[in-house]
Amino acid sequence: MDFELTEEQRAFAQTARDFAQAEFAPHAALWDAEGIFPKEAIAKAGELGFCGLYAPEAAGGLALPRLDATLVFEEMAAVDPSTTAFITIHNMATWMLGTWATPAVRDHWGPLLTTGEKLASYCLTEPGAGSDAASLKTRAELVGNAYVINGAKAFISGAGSTDVLVLMARTGDAQSGAGGISAFAVPADAPGITYGKKEHKMGWNSQPTRTISFDNVRIPADHLLGREGEGFKIAMKGLDGGRINIATCSVGAAQGALNAAQQYMQDRKQFGKPIASFQALQFKLADMATELVAARQMVRLAASKLDAGARDASTYCAMAKRFATDAGFTVINDALQLHGGYGYIREYPLERLLRDARVHQILEGTNEIMRVIIARRMLDGDATEAIR
Fold first, then answer.
1. Is the separation of the CB atoms in 350 and 339 below 8 Å?
2. Whole-model pTM?
3. Which of the four pLDDT bands, split at 50, 70 and 90, describes residue 184?
C-alpha cells in the first residue's frame, strides 16, 4: 500500500494548480458575483486535456484513472469549486458518451467534448424524480428510425449553454422501474427543446442551472447509448465517478479555505500578537487539517477501488461522497470563523467557497441517500469483513 503520488501524478496536479491560479483565481469572484459562465476558461482547460480526463482514447480522451482525475479536480476546486464542479459533470457526461455511444456519434461528439470546444450536460433529475431517480417519467418512443422524446428535467447544470445532453428517459412502460430506462445523446438545440429561466442559487453561480422541456423531440435511433433498458445502469456507473468528483471538489474547496486560514492566522493580530499564537485557534487549525487529510484519503481510496473494478466500489464511492462533502463543508465553515467578520465579506474567498460547497451535500445523491446505500451493504452478512 503506497500513499505517495508518482512523479507523473504530481506533475498533473501541479499543472492543474498553475492553470487554476492563472485562469480561475483572477476571475472567480467576478464570475460568482455576476453569474458568468466562463466557457473560454473551460475551453482552455480542455486544451490541457481537463475536459476528457477519463474519457476513452477512442473519443479523444486521456483515459486516465479516476485517482489521477481527482488530483486535477482538487487543485482547480481549491480556487473555484463552482467552475470545477461543472468541468467534472462535463467529464462524466463525456465519459458516458465516449463509452456507450455508437461509433458515428462517438466520433462526432468525442473530439469536440474532450477538447472543451463543445460542452455537455447530464440530464437525470426531474421535478418529481430526485433521490428516487428510477421513477423518472420522461419518455422516449421508438418511431421508425427515430426516438421521440417528451418530458422535463430539472436542476440541469449548464442547461441552455451546452451543446449535447446525456439524457435518461423511459423506454419501457410506466411500471418498468429502473429496467425500463435508456440513455441517449441529444443535441441541445434539437427542435422541441426549451429551457426554463436561469435559477438564482445560493452558490455555483458560475454555471447556469435550468429546467429543460422536451416536446416531441426527435433524434436518430443511433443516438441511443448502449442498449435499451441499460440507461439506469449507465447512470449509476456515471454517478459512482460523479460522487468521487464532487467529493474531490469539497476536498479542494476545503484546502483552499485551509490555505487562507493558515495565512490569515499569521497576519491577523489581536491583543498585541498574531492570532496564530492562541492555542485554541491552533487546535482548531489542527482539527481542520486532520479532517481534510482523512477526507482526501477516503476519496482517493474510493477512486482506487473504482479504478480496480472492486466489487464494493459503489459503497466506497458513497462513503467518500458522504464523508468528504460533510467534512469539507465543516472545514470551510471553520476557516470562515477564524477570519471573523472578514470571512463574511466578499473581499475574501471564504464565503464563496462556503456557498459553493454547500450543494455538494445534496447533489449526485443526497448524503442521506449515501447512508442508505452504505447501510444496505453493511447489512449483508459479509459486510464487516469486506468493507474495511
1. yes
2. 0.96
3. very high
